[in-house]
Write a structure and sequence with these properties.
Layout (H helix, E strand, L loop, with lengths): L1 H8 L3 H6 L4 H29 L10 E8 L5 E7 L2 E7 L4 E8 L15 H16 L1
Length: 134
């Protein structure tokens, strides 16, 4: 029984002439495979985002108020936990608590200003729009 199944799976010359794919069917088959792959990747991305979402009861207990690099791989970070602000030294191998402050001792967190290159980007956009109008 299994020998008959193997013989059916082998290509035969009689079926080979009839089964030649046309360029249109090859293109369609490739596009369907690409579409199926992209759908699987999109589904995996959506599932990862749902799994990484915030869990109930884990609101904004901690957030980083500020961070600055002091070396190629070292940082000093201000981490706010409740009413305390921890000054942490962060290296690739360790995290050290350097100091502990009250959140009321620090000025309120400000929203960041415009990025350094944003003024240049705006001017470039204006110049390109003027050039396209002419």
């Amino acid at each position: 029984m299994s020998l008959r199944l193997l013989l059916l799976l082998l290509p035969s010359p009689a079926f080979a002439a009839d089964a030649l794919p046309t360029p249109a069917t090859s293109l369609l088959q490739m596009l369907l495979g690409l579409g199926a792959t992209l759908l699987v990747l999109l589904g995996a991305l959506i599932m990862l985002k749902r799994l990484q979402g915030r869990r109930p009861g884990q609101g904004n207990l901690m957030h980083i108020r500020s961070a600055i690099s002091v070396g190629t791989r070292e940082k000093v970070v201000l981490l706010e936990v409740g009413k305390q602000v921890l000054v942490l030294g962060v290296t690739p191998g360790r995290i050290n608590a350097l100091h502990c402050l009250n959140a009321s001792d620090l000025p309120p967190a400000t929203t960041p200003g415009p990025l350094p290159g944003s003024e240049f980007a705006g001017r470039l956009r204006q110049m390109l729009e003027r050039r396209n109008e002419n």
